[in-house]
Amino acid sequence: MRSSAAKQLSLSLESTLKQLGLSARVRQYEVLERWPAIVGEHIAAVTVPQRIDHGKLIVRVSRSTWRNELVFLKKEIIAKINKAMNQEIVNDIIFR
Which residue of 1, 25, 38, 44 lies most exposed, with the fewest beta carbons within 10 A? Predict the structure, then answer.
């Protein structure tokens, strides 16, 4: 019984967010929240995802050596993010 009610509430909330034009923004925040699970603990330990703006993910990196390494992994990280979210949310990453 509770599972059915929770599912109905979830569908209702999703529909409301879509009607308000907020569903894409919520998915972007979900990327930020799921960052450690998507990129792994080593990368998550030296990075902080800050925001997504027009498909560009801004990530703060603790050291320049890591920033250089992450530039080489950019395409792989973008693919991991979009696969984890089951849609294309990120099309570029800017490491700062």
Answer: 1
State the CATH number of the domain containing residue 60. 3.30.300
CA separation for the pair 54, 12 (Å, rounded): 27
d(CA 42, CA 48): 12
pTM: 0.78
pLDDT in tens, the chain (96 residues): 467 877 787 777 777 757 766 677 778 889 999 999 999 999 999 999 999 999 999 999 999 999 999 999 999 999 999 999 999 999 999 999
Total domains in the chain come to 1
